[in-house]
Inverse folding.
């Protein structure tokens, strides 16, 4: 019989994709939901519960072979207190892992974040072997969860994905895609710093890879598409997907920085103009094959947007 996976965060952007992708890769999936929701027909079942109170998770985890924990409090809303990140991303994660251990699960897959490894930019190439140096409360809460998992007698793996994109994504990549869909020339042609992204389908393949790995893992693994593109290259790939020229104007980066600083968006400039390159070679050595290139994935994303 196919392995049974308990999945949290099944109604989120990543979770919805995992609900469809994991059954196609030979896994049965039981969704752990906070409230009733419509699920795809390939879902094996669903249990209503609250991972913040994992003492109620005994029935939900009965008979599962592994847990994939994708539910999280993300930094999409500004002003989230550090205590909230710690309660949801750290304490609830470790408590759920303890419940999985009691239930006899063989592996706990935690969807962490590249922000547990570094800030929004990094001068060198990031691997999981480097010293983790998160710069935000969100990143620190994810790293603390990984450290809590390391203290349990349970086989675990923390995937640290770069920024994930795909149909239904929100945030910076969705905003970039909306800009790419306009007919306007964009003053981003001088932005040459490479930045790693991760197609949601490639992330699903990474989850399947670590679920199937035969040996104990007990480690963090960074995840990103093979190639890193500059913001200018991202826009060009999106517009190619629409059959249009790139339409990029090479405005000097210093002028962009001044304009964004004047509007209080210094952090936005860092994300546009400074590098963040992730090397996922360790995951590739486990057998992960990212089938989607970043250029192809971005072109598909912009074509499928409403």
């Amino acid at each position: 019989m196919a392995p049974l996976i308990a999945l949290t965060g099944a109604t989120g952007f990543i979770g919805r994709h995992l609900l469809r992708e994991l059954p196609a890769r030979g896994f049965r999936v039981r969704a752990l939901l906070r409230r009733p929701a419509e699920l795809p027909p390939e879902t094996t079942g669903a249990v209503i519960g609250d991972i913040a109170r994992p003492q109620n998770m005994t029935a939900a985890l009965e008979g599962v072979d592994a847990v994939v924990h994708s539910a999280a409090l993300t930094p999409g809303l500004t002003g989230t207190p550090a205590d909230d990140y710690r309660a949801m991303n750290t304490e609830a994660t470790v408590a759920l892992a303890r419940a999985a251990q009691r239930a006899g699960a063989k592996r706990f897959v935690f969807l962490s974040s590249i922000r547990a490894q570094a800030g929004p930019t990094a001068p060198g190439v990031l691997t999981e072997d480097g010293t983790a140096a998160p710069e935000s409360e969100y990143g620190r809460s994810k790293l603390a969860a990984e450290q809590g998992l390391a203290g349990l007698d349970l086989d675990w793996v923390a995937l640290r994905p770069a920024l994930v994109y795909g149909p239904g994504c929100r945030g910076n990549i969705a905003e970039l895609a909306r800009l790419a869909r306009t007919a306007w020339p964009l003053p981003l042609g001088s932005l040459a710093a490479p930045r790693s992204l991760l197609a949601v389908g490639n992330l699903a393949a990474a989850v399947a890879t670590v679920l199937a790995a035969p040996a104990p893992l007990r480690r963090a693994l960074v995840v990103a598409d093979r190639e890193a593109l500059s913001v200018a290259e991202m826009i060009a790939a999106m517009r190619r997907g629409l059959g249009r020229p790139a339409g990029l104007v090479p405005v000097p980066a210093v002028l962009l920085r001044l304009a964004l600083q004047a509007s209080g968006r210094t952090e936005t400039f860092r994300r546009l103009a400074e590098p963040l390159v992730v090397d996922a070679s360790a995951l590739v050595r486990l057998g992960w094959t990212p089938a989607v290139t970043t250029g192809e994935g971005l072109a598909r994303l912009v074509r499928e947007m409403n």
